[in-house]
Amino acid sequence: MKFSDEVREYDGDTLWLSPSEDFVDLTQYIYESIVLSLPYQRVHPDGECDPDMLGRFRIVSEQEFETIENETQQREREASGSGQWTEQLSAIKQQMEQEEKTRNIKLIIDNTKWHILNTKSRQPAATSVELTTKQSFPRS
């Protein structure tokens, strides 16, 4: 820390203060010092892994995932009785997806029509200028 009558910014090494300052807020500097002193990755010695945590991080294969998914769907069907609600919800979901696709297609068509109309509205002006130019200077 150094004192100066000129206003200077902190350059990473020296914090400049005015002699008239009676309070210095060091919270940000202390926080940065603590955060930068922590290791980027916390590592423990080999063989000290918590088996419960290792089980949580285990990656599931595609086959295991499908098995779990099928078991879950089976439980849901059994819980819902005859599976009637699952079928109805699936049908509603498919209907909503189809409606969304239709809505998106309509938006694309509307945007294309707008673009075509705007492009056509500009073309006749250019064509008429070309025609008048050709007419005003006949070839001999």
Describe this structure in words.
- With 140 residues, this protein is mostly helical.
- It is 64% helix and 3% strand.
- It is built from 4 helices and 2 strands, in the order ββαααα.
- The chain has helices at 27-37, 51-57, 62-79, 84-136, and strands at residues 2-3, 16-17.
- The chain has a two-stranded parallel ribbon.
- The longest helix is centred in the C-terminal third of the chain and has 53 residues, at 84-136.
- It is flat, with a radius of gyration of 36 Å.
- 0% of the residues are buried.
The separation of the N and C termini measures 89 Å
**Percent of residues in helices:** 55-70%
Identify low-pLDDT runs: 131-135
- Major pleated sheet: 2 strands, parallel
Helix count equals 4
CA gyration radius, whole angstroms: 36 Å
Mean pLDDT: 76
Percent strand:
under 5%
Overall morphology: flat
Please state the structural category.
mainly alpha
The order of strands across the largest sheet is 1-2
Q: What is the number of E strands?
A: 2
